[in-house]
């Protein structure tokens, strides 16, 4: 079970006796509460096939473990390693594939939202 920072901070201050247990049992992840804002400069550092992030829309995605699984091949993603791939991504896919074939499979990780 994953506990968010927010939940941990609240634990000592539960307003009712079982508040702590309720919070512990909650499926909320740290990402639901604390959405990280990531700069384009930070994304640009992750531009190799051992550490590959891309921007799609307002999302920053770590696709390193997805490269070998990508139906469109590793090279097509690597052309955008560390960069904004939104325009090309949208020409070829529905955004829904990110969750369905990446995040739900555990091969794509949402790092946060791009800092504008
Ligand atoms: C971010 C995570 C990504 C996921 C989960 C993903 C998933 C997929 C999937 C499932 C397909 C098969 C076609 C479809 O079902 O739409 C596909 C094809 C493709 N993808 Fe991605 N993709 C990702 C990122 C990218 C990026 C960043 C690029 C570069 C622009 C790219 C380029 C392509 C290409 C060129 C194809 C082949 C299209 C074709 O053969 O017609 N993908 N991708």
From TrEMBL:
PANTHER family: CYTOCHROME B5. SMART domains: Cyt-b5. Belongs to the cytochrome b5 family. One of its GO terms (molecular function) is metal ion binding. Keywords: Heme, Iron, Metal-binding. This is Cytochrome b5 isoform A. GO terms for cellular component: membrane. Residues 35-93 form the Cytochrome b5 heme-binding domain. Transmembrane segments: none annotated. InterPro entries: Cyt_B5-like_heme/steroid-bd, Cyt_B5-like_heme/steroid_sf, Cyt_B5_heme-BS, Cytochrome_b5.
